[in-house]
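Take one record.
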Amino acid sequence: MSQPTRLAEFKSKSVILLNKMRDSGSLGVSDRKFRLLEYLINEELEGRGERIKAYSIGVDILGKDESFDPSTNNAVRVEMGRLREALKKFYSTNTKNNLLHIEIPTGSYRPIISEQSKKTAPRKINKSEKRKRSIKQDMLLLLGVTVSAVLLLFIYNPTKTISPSSPHTSNSEAHGKDPRISVSIRKFTSLSPNSDINFIAESLSEDLAVILTRNKSLAVIGLDDDQATLTGVAKNGVIIDGYVRESSDTLHIVVELLDQKTKIVIWAQTFHHPNVTDADQDVLLQKVAGELRTQLYNASRRILAGEDPKGLSPWELYLIATWIPGEAKSTLEWEKERVDLARFALQLQPDFGQAHSVLADKLAYLASVDPPSDSAKALDEAAYHAQKAMETAPHDADVFFNLGIYQWHVGRIKKATMSMERVVELDPSHTMAKMLIEVMPYTCSPAPLSVIETTKAHDASLSPENPVRWVTLTWLTMLHLNRGELEQALITEQRTHQIFQTPDTIARMAVIMNQLGDLEGAKTLFASQKQNWPNLDARHFANVTMPRRCAEDANAGPLIDMYRDLAAALYE
């Protein structure tokens, strides 16, 4: 084959491969990686590979002006790193009929282009093997006919009804849709004429997509600016949109969350960050993703509100049942409904680890706060579901978060802390888990002042309306109480109750009030919860909950004694 013909063949194959990569989504939601890879391939095939330099990439592809200096601006190195990762992702999931293989070695901008290895010729099969295969095929055919007959009998059985214990297909699954939270990320828009800001805007949306894909509850898909509708997404779909502008040395990023169907903005937040380096942008991305986490879950719940559970998939049932700061009710009835939803999910999909993790958490929680729910059988069941969750969903950060809370309730504080460390390994944007790693070891005993200061700083870093603030304030109350700082503990617990109240926070606040001499206030507080938690009992906290929770801590005596003082005062 002549050289021109060979070159034309490679060009034709490269066009097919590039389009395949773009269609697969491996190159991200914008066309920047596509344009960069197309440029590198064309330059190499045209014999201009030696001319590929960081400066030419920055100016020709990334839109930098002629003053661009690659030695001080690492935009090209960052983008090349992302392209290498995109190529690895593509070839790891698309192993057939690629025609060409593209590789860009680290430290170089020149691609290595090679043809896909030819398939080896099929091995000849002798008569003995043919006979064995024929027998095996006959057996498989007979088995297939038998299974088909059974399935037809099942399908056309007139007595079959749909019930919580019978398999069903959810509305989302029936239409071929992913039942997880569908998150579509638009390319962020730059409101600045500065080409660097244009690059940052595109990078933020792409990198945010990468971060969010770590969350197994999210189905992250790209969304072009001119795409009006989406297909293949569940009913609880949302869109993330964003705008970037600069003033002086500060970036202002507006992030919006929209209902996919109505396009109504359901949440928006402006983030201000120094416009300095890519490392700072990574910090910004983690902050944005952390704020989005609870908003995505709560938005999904609002969209699913009022749906008949019998029409929901296991994933949708899990999203409604699992604990997340935000929209919830603090009642015994509501918590038992979460248990029922998780059980229903397991009836539909017995090895659904996410639902197992919810049951581990909920059963242990109810054993802590509702005396009739506390039994050896309930704790054994919680332990069973915890084990099943680890076996069936070992790479889901939210599963390990639920397991960490379960372990905390049953007094395995060290394991709970390790579970939170695993959460952060799987999802570095999980801000709650990062904080809990620091504070959990001090559940029952005094913490160093540095831990309190770190927790305060974490609380201050959150937006005022972020539901996670309830968690940080709750732990600040506990830290102050364990140090005997009663006045500060009371003030912090009052702020906590402005956001949400649980039996745990009610009991803790009553303990603080009793220690400060306000027994009547403690009695009134407990009485106010009788409708929501009819079995709430300070004696259960004093004699069961706190001793179990603090079993690993030899210094927990003073804290437990405060709970016992309250129980004695309330029921004397």
